[in-house]
Specification:
Order of helices and strands: HHH
Shape: rod-shaped
Largest sheet: none
Distance between the termini: 115 Å
């Protein structure tokens, strides 16, 4: 008796679909993190915020990246606005008082 063994049929391998690149979301995320870490105050967070909002609409698969970018850029922009407002609220009266000779 001869026994023949047959090799099992190879199972078809299903490759995972390649993730679509999400340049707007990644750019928003990087700009948000860099603006927080490096202290960029106005222009960079505004650009990151705009890119994050555009990315949420155009790149639904990268929603998490764009959300984190939006939050980081908004926090940095709000912090810059608060510091600018406090600086103007304190600096302008002191400057005017100095010009008028009250403190000088």
């Amino acid at each position: 008796m001869t026994s023949t063994t047959t090799a099992p049929a190879p199972s078809p391998s299903v490759a995972a679909p390649a993730a679509a690149p999400a340049p707007l979301s990644i750019t928003s995320l990087v700009l948000g993190l860099v603006s927080v870490a490096a202290g960029f105050t106005l222009v960079v967070p505004i650009v990151g915020l705009v890119l994050g909002v555009l990315a949420r609409r155009r790149e639904p698969e990268a929603r998490t990246f764009s959300t984190i970018g939006i939050v980081a850029n908004a926090v940095m922009l709000a912090g810059a606005a608060i510091v600018l407002g406090l600086g103007l609220a304190v600096g302008v009266p002191l400057g005017v008082a100095h010009l008028l000779g009250a403190l000088g």
